[in-house]
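Methods: example folding runs. The two proteins below were folded one after another, and each record is reproduced exactly as written to the output file, sequence line first and structure-token line second.
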Amino acid sequence: MKNLNKILLIIALNLTFSFSVYSTPTNQFINSVSPPMNANSVVKSSNIVIIFEQTMNGSTMTDANVKVFGYQTGLMNLSLDFNSVANTLTINPVNEFKNGEKISVTLTSGIKTISNQSITPFVFLFRAKALGGTGSFNLSSEISNTVSGYIRSGDIDIDGDIDLVINNAVYINNGNALFNISQTLNQQGRPDIFDADNDNDLDIMISNIGTIYYYKNDGLGNFSFFSTFPGSVWAYGDLSGNGLMDITYFVNTSEVRTAFNFNGNFISNPVVTLFGQCVNNGDLYDNLLIDDYNNDGNMDIMAISGWINGSSITFYDICRNYNLLEKNGIGEFISQDAFYHFSERWSPIIFEAADSKSFDFNDDGLVDIESPILKLNNNSNGLFTETGGFVVFSSSLDFDFNGDGFIDLSANNSGSPLLCYLNDGSGDFSFYIGNNLQFASASASGDFDNDGDIDIAIKEYSNDKVAILLNGDSPLPVELSSFTSSVNSNSVKLNWSTSSEQYNSGFEIQRSIVRNETPDAWTKIGFTDGQGNSNTAASYTFEDKNLLSGKYKYRLKQIDFNGNFEIYDLSNEVVIGIPTSTELMQNYPNPFNPVTNISYRLSENGFVTLKVFDNSGREVKTLINEFKEAGYYTNEFNGSDLASGIYFYKLTAGDFVQTKKLSLVK
């Protein structure tokens, strides 16, 4: 039975998420995870499900050992449910993910098997679904008097809206993509925002000339200086697998250092030497990326660095090494040269080449790399293959422009318009201009106006303004073409159809009992999944069974993926009348343990008894012994105090007597 439960759950997860076998974890303790590793389009209300390979100790499944981080929200509060039969942990975040948000899940070594063996720490990433958008980014508003530098986005004051940090200034979103400055920190530099102390809010780290200035959030978006320590934040993630966000940074083009987080204190590790002919005495710092490039449940580091040489006469050459830093089993990072790139005869624009990104661009479950000039496909063996390229860019953003489930890339360099690359899901990108204004090399993304799609905040060129570019919404709503009802005895069948649907999560079916001069009290009685996005007709059916005599109203609550909804009322009241004959129905379920339902119909008023007898004819329970009006009825029979066996139930109503058999199986 245990294996059957596991098989059924795995089938269900595969029906829910379509993903390549490459996204299956390679870990002796983990059988599978849902959402899949590196998934790019996860519904924001999704649970996280871990199926273990070995029999686990359920008492170790605690929030001390299970951590979920939102890159725009911080450490998330969780509800945990371990099913010892299916050997499955269900993680239910208390709050939904942000649209398009990157999510990190950590299972620490505090989780143990039934034999008290600690698991190897396991970390994986996925992204929440972006809802809609057209990929046309329109200027909505501007933030003036900003300092040149960097832009970061996240829910700083925990009010549900995505805020901004621009250099050392904090800007709070009013919920409609309008930003007001709330605080200016006393140290300028390059900001990064993440939950550094696991207190469920985003803190600020400002890097400036080899020193990190750490500002703590009080939970309301107010920051106070906490400490300084050596280094610089190039990237952050749970590198150690202890459920805390660590950092990594370049020492120089041939050396990288990590600093592990111990309860908010960052301890530096020895430098890791990079390899390749480009890294020594170089001057090109492209980026440091944290991702799991081999799906082993450990966060790796991709270090991209090198040199640019030449002159305006001979033009310029660029040389880059892509070093993959993987853990060696004892917590240390070992570097290997994953890709080498050399290109020659470039104009001075090549000096702007930087800010590579990593995401799965071809939907094979493996994390690929998107760089200035290059597009690199992950071969799953620690090496990468060039499969195309982009223009030179100095700043980039990776998110889903149009809600199709595939990650796209926006890019720009100093003075360029917004350069957009739309991914078709196979890794082929179509180029277009997303906005024709001129921009500088600083940007951030997020759902600033809370409409489900992802917007952009980007520094304007040659002035002190940051532009808020809102993603154009797709216009097609759900169009309901019909909504009807039919009655069969005491059941109601609802039928409705749509001519088109856009971002339709589904329909919640609601019912209200009609009572004279009493306001409608609506009750949810079911839910039917929608088509998502469709321009063709679709039909739906829902049956409401075993109703009592009376009048009813029905309505549909059509819900978008982003939580928006529309109400569609059934035009007529539904009447469940009086039965034409008296009848005793077969109980359901049958066999049962220990509760079953017994339904009956009365065609006229009268005194009614409903009794249960054992196999010897002895009365064991009286369920009904009273006057009843004509109508439909259902009574619950609880056999928890009876032994397993065959029993009989008898309905007496006037001259009507009928007996049926039921089976109690414990």
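Second run, written to the same file directly after the first:
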Amino acid sequence: MSSIYPSELPKEILNDPYRRAEVKLFTALNNSKLFSTTNIYYSASWINKGTNKNRQRDGECDFILTDKDYGIIFIEVKGGEISKDENNQWYSGKKEIKNPIQQCNKNMYFFMDEYKRRWKDKHLNDNYPSFFYDSYAFFPDVNYKNKEYLGAAYDKSKFGFRDNLDSIEEKILSFFLEGRKNKDQFEKLGQESQDIFHEMFTKPINFKLSLLDEIKDNNLAISKLTTEQYEILEGSHQGWKALWCEGPAGSGKTIIAIKKFLKEYNNLQNGKLLFLCRNKPISLKIKNKINSEINDKDKNSYYVGTFDGFCQKTLSNHGANLDFENMEKSYDQVFDIVSDGKTKFDVVIIDESQDFSPTWWTILENLKTDNTIFWIFGDSNQKIWKKSKPEISEINPTSVYLTHILRNSKTIAQKSLPFFDGGGHELTLDGPLSNKFELIKTTNFTKTISEIHKKLIFEGVENQSIIVLTSDNAPEEKFKGINCSSIFKYKGMEADCVIFVIEDLNKYKPEHLYVGITRAKTFLNILCRPEDEEKIKKMLI
């Protein structure tokens, strides 16, 4: 049985009165019992790729049939009552139409030229088979009954009519057999040539967005959304000296905190500013970002770093150091130093406040004056961190809540929700549309990580945009040449592409899963053991 492309017609064509004749022939061909070596193509289009641009620029052939034994035929369809006057003007009813054979010839010659180009591209020669091809016209609404003379230019063998629809196999075969009248004149079309024509008429097109471009687009969108969220927060809390703000991972807290710091820096002259968080790697990124944005570094004095780093700096200014074996003693020393009333800041910005202990807040309280701008940002996930108001005077009793998740793609953000409890706050997933998420089971984590990393690099992603996240005790040296971090060290940070390794689900707490998933902006692959796959799938629903 022959194959037809497309396999069925869309409703807009079936319901189009101007295509009624084409639909009739399509239906007949679709129901026919032509050879299994025959392919049928409806509405094959072309554009002029040749050097002679004065010729017709584009066109469309109503039907093309290829057969690897018989050759190829081209058919133009005209509906209604068909006639031609003595001036060689053709009509459908009273409407002027193009000469169907000449119209079909133009289509045929362009397709044949394209076939020859495709053959030469594949074989670097012009030795294509000399197969049969010809043009025909089909008039599905009328019959040819009186067998009248059609003139010197036309023969009844070039046309198909209404009464041929019931025996369409016979008519199509008669078209093909025109090439068999002289057996030595034509070769078989052959499978290779039929495949070339098939590619010409049905070649799928997929202009795929590259991962690198998707990352660039997502980062632009995230930056725009975060700026808008900051402007809303700043605008609605203008004049607030103390502010406690919470939100889920990906809500832009750190970027908003940086923007607030930079704004106040530009507003001050000879001021003192402080930006603190807990995690050293994220503090370094924040410091680099702030340093890159400040042009006049002599305008104000400022410190950006971890809370412990600030404590070490404070102690070293007084001839002491942090005692890592007795941190409480060191904190008491810092408290005594800052309680003298001389260590005051005009601006204090805190990030990762959920990780700050009560002892830390007592130290920080002594850094502020009545006019100090003291803005605090923290993660609001009550499934992981106990909700606790920062012990800072004049702070708002309940947090200002950021409900929009911006940093992660919608797909990635959705995967983190089972591990999130916002205390009744409804979240809005406003991140970019992206579906680069996959859960992959493996028995060889090192090999799978290497394969994913190579694929990402091949797609143009820079190595610094890729991170492998593992449990706190996973040996990082196994992944040489690939950026790797424990989940704990990567808290507060982000990457365009994250390979999250769950080597044993029993070792992972909800905090690990929440942090690991929410580090990814565009691309997230979670690797697991085969025995953990179904458990993780159920958790991610």
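Comment on the second run: Residues 211-236 form the longest helix (26 residues).
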